Amino acid sequence: MTTSLRSRLSEPGAIVALGAHDGLTARIAERAGIEALYHGGYATAAHHFGLPDVGLIGRAEVVESVRRMRGATNLPIVVDADTGYGNEGGVYLTVREIEAAGANAVQIEDQVSPKRCGHMPGKEVVPQDEMVKKIEAACLARRDDDFVIIARTDALAIEGIDGASARARAYADAGADMIFPDAVKSEDDIARIVDAARVPVTINMGFGIRSRPTTPLVPIPRLKALGVRRISLPRMLPGAAIKAMATALAIMRETMDTGMPADRPDLVAGIEDIMQLMDYEGATQLEAQLLGSAAIERKYRAK
Known about the structure:
CATH topology of the largest domain: TIM Barrel
CATH class of the largest domain: Alpha Beta
CATH architecture of the largest domain: Alpha-Beta Barrel
Shape: globular
Strand order of the largest sheet: 6-5-4-3-2-1-8-7
Helix content: 40-55%
Distance between the termini: 47 Å
Largest sheet: 8 strands, parallel
Structural class: alpha/beta
Strand content: 5-15%
Radius of gyration: 22 Å
CATH superfamily of the largest domain: Phosphoenolpyruvate-binding domains
Number of domains: 2
C-alpha cells in the first residue's frame, strides 16, 4: 500500500483523498471508490472526543485511531500528526508509531504547539530551522522508504507568500516528499508554492465555510491544472454526518408527541445496507468455516 501511494504520486494527475476518522467512514469511502484517506486532526478531535482542533489530542489517541482504521480498509491512509507531538525526538517517535500502525504517510506542521485549526486566527509558526530539523527527524525515523513525509506550513498567514514559498523550498530540501501550504488565499498562492517546492504539493478544499472562507473553493480540474498532486477533502464526511444526524433527530422529535414511529428511509440507512457495509456475510462465512457444519447446525437449527 505504501508503494502504491508513492508510485501514484509519480504518475500524471492528482490523488483525491477524502477525510475519514474511523473504520465506518473508511468503509464508506472505500465503497464509494475513493482513492485515498486523510486521517485529519479536526475530524479525529471532533468525532472521537467532541473537542475543537486546538492541539488537545495527542500521539497515543491518533495512533490508536489509525490502527483501527487500518483494520477496516485497504486504502492508503495519510495521517495528520499536528506538530509531531514534541521536539525532534517526539517527531521521531511519532513517525515510528504511526508507520507501525499501518499508515502510508504522515503530515507534520510548523505551527507553535499547541496548534490550532489552520483556518483559525492567532496562528504562530516555529522558526524555519526548527521545522527543518523536525523533517530530518521524520525522514530518519521511517523504516520503509516508500512511507511519505508531508511538511505542512502555516506561514502564509504570518509571513506572507514569500515566507511560505521559502519554507516550502527549505522543507523539500530537508527531505519532505510533499508540501502542504494551509489556508492559501488564491490560485496565485497555489501556483507560487508549486513552483517553489519542486516536489508534489497538496491542497485542502474545505467545504462548509460560508462566511469569508480562508481558502476559496477551486474546482478539482483547475487544481490539477495548477500542478497540485494531492487534493484533500477533510470536512466533507464530518459535515455531512453532523447535518444528517441533526436532521434525523429533528424529525424524530417532531413525531414523538404523535405516537407514530419516524420511518424515514430517505434519511436513515437500512439495516441491510449497514450489514453489507460491515460485511456481516463475511463474518458468517468465517464462522461456518471455523465451527464446522455440525456446530452450525446445532447453533442455528429451528427450535
